[in-house]
Write a structure and sequence with these properties.
By secondary structure, this protein is an alpha/beta fold. Helix content is 44%, strand content 12%.
Length: 331
């Protein structure tokens, strides 16, 4: 099936009334209710929306921007199209979820280092994202250069986490339905709402800690509202930060602000640093996968120090993951 085909076994979904509301331009468009957003995105994921309507929806939302209630509705619809994962029974921390959809163009992508450091502390770690991205070095490529096998199913991911190894699963395996909509970027030439949604996924049956990031200020505002006001508390907590080239790993340069959202309350764990503190840490000379993998191995072997900002991020993740697990077993 091509990215825009309607499933012949499903009834077509009439989307015109939704497009009429969201397609009036940036000033005239109106946002959907959470229920309508869930209804529409469910139909999109089920491949019940025509090519013409799908293009109209994606471009209208790109121009208008997503409201917090639209994101909440989309997320509710997406949850039924994502693999369900169980945390390892032997874990003493809640899982940490690291989305990886940007990779690196200029500086080395150190998302695998963050995942490996957390797993070394006994934290179940799920990394999900794309396998490749033209012009960028994807996290999956670095894991492969490290000799770390990728998971292709929920069972494989759960086994790796039970062995205290980070599990990387591609979005193709985690959610084929969302992958189909992501792929429409190649047709339309622009990103769509699903690129935001995949970075917010929480596929575990119990509470987990999501690491989330943004690249533009308007997304910071929307995500702060989502995690403060509408995100289901039983799904766990979230850390929100400005991305390092879009990745949710702390920069090796100036530290970014990291906000922790717990049961609707926001606490700033790390303040933005306007200048570097101390000497610039040792980092890979280039950002290709092989060089980055060798450098990560040297850090894990103790030959190179962990960059301070990443070390701090690890500590915050460990503490919150431990707290979430303790709360879950006490209930």
């Amino acid at each position: 099936m091509t990215p825009t085909d309607i499933s012949p076994n499903k009834e077509a979904f009439p989307a015109a009334r939704f497009i009429k509301e969201i397609g009036r331009g940036k000033e005239g468009a109106r946002s959907m209710s959470q229920d309508d957003a869930q209804l529409l995105y469910s139909a999109m994921l089920d491949a019940r929306v025509s090519d013409l309507e799908m293009g109209g929806i994606l471009l209208a939302m790109r121009i208008k921007g997503e409201s917090v209630h639209e994101i909440a509705g989309f997320m509710a619809a997406a949850q039924g199209h994502v693999l369900a994962l169980n945390a390892p029974s032997n874990a003493r921390h809640a899982p940490v979820i690291i989305p990886s959809y940007n990779g690196a163009r200029k500086k080395a992508n150190l998302t695998p280092l963050l995942a490996l450091l957390l797993a070394r502390r006994g934290v179940p770690v799920l990394v999900h994202g794309v396998l490749t991205d033209a012009g960028r070095v994807a996290t999956a490529e670095i894991f492969e250069a490290l000799g770390h096998p990728l998971a292709h199913s929920a069972a494989e991911a759960e086994t790796q986490m039970a062995q205290q190894q980070p599990a990387f699963i591609s979005i193709d395996a985690l959610s084929p339905a969302m992958t189909r909509i992501l792929a429409m970027r190649r047709i339309l030439g622009v990103r769509n709402s699903t690129h935001t949604l995949v970075k917010m996924l929480q596929p575990f049956t119990g509470a987990a800690l999501r690491l989330t990031s943004y690249t533009h200020p308007e997304y910071q505002t929307m995500l702060r509202h989502y995690f403060s006001e509408v995100a289901p508390h039983e799904r766990g907590d979230a850390f929100l930060m400005r991305g390092t080239e879009g990745e949710t790993v702390a920069s090796t340069g100036r530290a970014q602000q990291i906000d922790w959202f717990h049961e609707g309350q926001c606490t700033t764990l790390v303040q933005t640093h306007q200048s570097l503190s101390g000497e610039l840490p040792d980092t890979p000379e280039t950002c290709d996968a092989a060089t980055t993998a060798r450098w990560i191995q040297s850090v894990l072997a103790g030959e190179v120090a962990v960059p301070p900002n990443i070390a701090d991020q690890v500590e915050h993740c460990v503490l919150v993951a431990k707290m979430l697990w303790e709360r879950s077993v006490s209930r």
